[in-house]
Specification:
Blueprint (H helix, E strand, L loop, with lengths): L25 H6 L5 H12 L6 E6 L4 E12 L2 E8 L4 E6 L3 E6 L6 H4 L29
Antiparallel strand pairs: 1-2, 1-5, 2-3, 3-4
Length: about 140
């Protein structure tokens, strides 16, 4: 007998993390790099930690799911810990990254360089400011 599986719930219910209305860019989806949950948390924090951190849902070994903004990842007493801020209730959640089995990144586009392992540049680093709406080399219209 295993641990009962809980269905994934949408993380868009958290204030500031509206559910996605569109599918991410095909180039982004085709370029996503497979990473361990601990690594993606660490890299997302390095890219944009603090109060404007990535909106994530963290799935733990015991079946719990914490949602919020990733505001810190650090080592304490030899253990890597991620800290999430849930604006819905104003709470902080402290998670041992060794107990994280999955991470969902809400609205991944701002973290293109992180989630693709550098295969695609960060938004605004590709030489196109994204404001002219002109077609790129692949025929796609740039987004603002």
């Amino acid at each position: 007998m295993g641990v009962p599986q809980q269905p994934l719930r949408p993380v868009g219910a958290v204030e500031g993390m509206a559910p996605a209305m569109t599918v991410p860019d095909k180039h982004l989806l085709d370029s996503v790099a497979a990473m361990t949950p601990g690594r993606i948390l660490r890299l997302l924090y390095e890219a944009a930690g603090g109060s404007d951190g990535a909106a994530v849902a963290v799935h733990l070994l015991g079946g719990q799911v914490l949602t919020g903004r990733l505001i810190s990842v650090a080592t304490d007493q030899g253990h890597e810990v991620a800290v999430l801020y849930d604006p819905r209730i104003g709470s902080l959640g402290y998670v041992l990254t060794a107990h994280v089995i999955a991470v969902e990144v809400v609205h991944p586009e701002p973290f293109t360089d992180v989630i693709t392992g550098g295969r695609l540049p960060a938004p605004g680093e590709d030489g196109d400011d994204g404001e002219d709406g002109e077609d790129s080399e692949d025929g796609e219209t740039s987004r603002q």
